[in-house]
Amino acid sequence: MSDAEVEYSVFKALIPLISGGHDDEYEKFAALSRGLRMLWSTLLLDGEVNNGGFNQFFFNSSGQFAVDAVEGFRLIGAEQHAQLTEEAIALFFKEAPKLRRFWRPRTLQGFSESYRHTQSGELDRRYYALADPSVLRVQYIRAQPSEFEVPD
Prior knowledge:
CATH class: Mainly Alpha
Number of domains: 1
CATH architecture: Up-down Bundle
Structural class: mainly alpha
Largest sheet: none
Shape: globular
Strand content: under 5%
Radius of gyration: 16 Å
Order of helices and strands: HHHHHHHH
CATH topology: A middle domain of Talin 1
């Protein structure tokens, strides 16, 4: 398998195990191996941030995996990603009181408006400048295959 296939084949196998209901999504995730938690949380963060920045990541349910993504980045040696994510978490808690009014209605209009009231753009630019963490994820998967056995 190519590196891209390795990463996404494991991720695709996790989707039906974790997704489906936001109420128990985190509990299902927490029961996984360290490697699977790393893959899920860092891929979600990477995808959300590259699509719409940290504001999007925290607006969507993916934000619940932020601390796990920090741990996952550290596990694979992506220290800059981990540190930047920690900064984003701190900013999220600082800005949450003012952003809540835009996020709470869960509308596209509110989400779009929230971008005008966040300082996360600088963190986004710094994240985009980092190397793609995929290489480190795949290296870890290939070195620790037993951590990536998806439960039935």
